[in-house]
Amino acid sequence: MNSNQFGKRGWTPDRIEPLNGKIFVVTGTTSGTGFEATKILLSKGAKVVMLNRNKKKAEHTIHILKQELGNQIEVLAINMDLADQVSVKKAAEDVLKVVPKIDALICNAAIAQVPQQKLTVDGWESQMGTNYYGNWTLQALLYPLIEKSKGRIVTVGSLGYDMGIKTIKFDDLNWDKDYSPNDAYSQSKLAQIMSIYELQNRLKKAGKNNVKAYACHPGSSRTNLINTSGSFMMKFIFNLMKLSPLTQSAEKGAYPQLMCATEPDLDQSGFYGPTGRSNWVGPVGAHEIKPHAKNKTTAKRLWELSEKETGVTWNF
Ligand SMILES: NC(=O)c1ccc[n+]([C@@H]2O[C@H](COP(=O)([O-])OP(=O)(O)OC[C@H]3O[C@@H](n4cnc5c(N)ncnc54)[C@H](OP(=O)(O)O)[C@@H]3O)[C@@H](O)[C@H]2O)c1
After folding, report:
1. Which of 24, 160, 176, 315 could disulfide-link to 186, CB 3.0 to 4.6 Å?
2. What Gene3D superfamilies is this protein classified in (predicted)?
3. To test ligand 1's pocket by mutation, which of 224, 227, 229, 281 has the most ligand atoms within 8 angstroms of CB?
C-alpha cells in the first residue's frame, strides 16, 4: 500500500481549521455522508447552504442539526430536485441570491441501483439525469461565483466508476437496449468523475487557476443510498453488508468530501477515498484511479454532449 500523505490514520477532520466566514453549498444533506459533512462543517463555524429535494426532510435536518450543535449555527435550506433541470436552475438562482461567495460546492447527492429503467422529466435515464446532468448544470451555473470566491468544486463519485462498462455508452446513453441497474449507476458515477478531470483541463486551457476541482468517493458507507432507490434484493444484500467490517460509518464516508473541500494545497489530479481494504474502508487519502476515468477523448465528447443536452455552457 502507498504511504498516506496524512499519516497512518489518514485524513481526519481534526485537520480542518476554524471555518468562520466560509460558505459551503452541499447537495443531499438529509441523510448519509451529506448530513455528516454538513454537521462537521457547521461544527467548525462554517455557514452551509443545503440543497435538497424534500422540503420537510430538509426542515427536519435543520432541527436535528440545531439540537446537536446549538441554535447559533448558520444553516439554510434551498429546494432542489437534481432530477429536474428546471428545479436545478431555480436552485442555482436562489443560491446566488442568498450568498455573496461559495468556498466550496460539494456535489454529494445521488441515487443508486434503480431497478428498472426510468427517465427523468428531461428524458434521461434516471441515474444519469440525477447524478450526472443535475450536478453538471448546478456546477456550471454556480461556477462564476465559485470562480470569484477562489472556491472549489467537489464531486462525490463512487468506486462504481470501475464496475460497469468503464466508458460512456454514447450510442445508447439511456440504456434502451440492455438496462442494468449497476451499469447505469456506474456510468453516471464515471461521468461525474470524468467531468471533474475534464473541467480541470478546461480551466487550465482557459488560464483560470482560481477554481479547484476534486473527485472523491466515500468507499462503502452505511447510509440510506440503496434503501432509497435500490431493488429489494440490493437492499437485502447491502443491509447484510452493513453488518460486516467491509463497511464504515457515514461519518467516515464524509471525510473524503470534507478533505477535498477544505484541505489546503490538495493535488487536484488525485482521486480521494478510503485507502484500506479494496478502498471500501480505512484511512482516507489519495489512491489509484484507473486510466479510463481520465480518458480525454471520451471526456471531451461527454462534455460537448452535456452542453448540447442541457443547453448549459460554462462561462470560462
Ligand atoms: N454509501 C455508499 O457506500 C456509497 C458508495 C459509493 C458512492 N456513494 C455516493 O455517496 C454520495 C452520498 O450518498 P449516501 O451514501 O450518503 O446516500 P443517502 O444516505 O441516500 O444520501 C443521498 C442524499 O442525496 C439526496 N438525493 C437523492 N436524490 C436526489 C435528488 N433528485 N435531488 C436532490 N437530492 C437528492 C437524498 O435525499 P432524500 O433524503 O430526499 O432521498 C439524500 O439526502 C452519493 O453521491 C453516492 O453515489 C455512496
Report:
1. 160
2. NAD(P)-binding Rossmann-like Domain (3.40.50.720)
3. 224
The whole-number average pLDDT for the span 161-181 is: 95
**Whether the Cβ atoms of residue 218 and residue 156 lie closer than 8 Å to each other:** yes
239 — pLDDT class (breaks 50, 70, 90): confident
Q: What is the mean pLDDT of the chain?
A: 95
**Grid cell at residue 180:** 442494468
Helices (H), the chain: 32-43, 55-69, 85-98, 126-127, 135-148, 181-205, 225-229, 232-241, 250-262, 296-310
Name the pTM for this structure: 0.97
* Mean pLDDT of all residues in 296-302: 98
- Which pLDDT belongs to residue 150? 98
Whether the CB of 110 sits within 6 Å of ligand 1: yes
Greatest Cα pair distance in the chain: 53
Contact 12, 258 (CB under 8 A): no
Pocket-testing residue among 25, 27, 31, 132, ligand 1, by greatest number of atoms within 8 A of Cβ? 31
**226 touches ligand 1 (CB under 6 Å):** no
* Band (1; pLDDT cuts 50, 70, 90): very low
Does residue 243 carry a pLDDT above 80?
A: no
Pocket-testing residue among 26, 29, 33, 227, ligand 1, by greatest number of atoms within 8 A of Cβ = 33
Task: Work out the average pLDDT over 8-24.
Answer: 97
Rg (CA), the chain: 18
pLDDT exceeds 90 at position 287 = yes
CATH hierarchy code of domain 13-310: 3.40.50.720
Q: Is 83 helix (H, G, I), strand (E, B) or coil?
A: coil
User: Is 38's C-beta closer than 6 angstroms to any atom of ligand 1?
Assistant: no
Domain ranges of the chain: 13-310
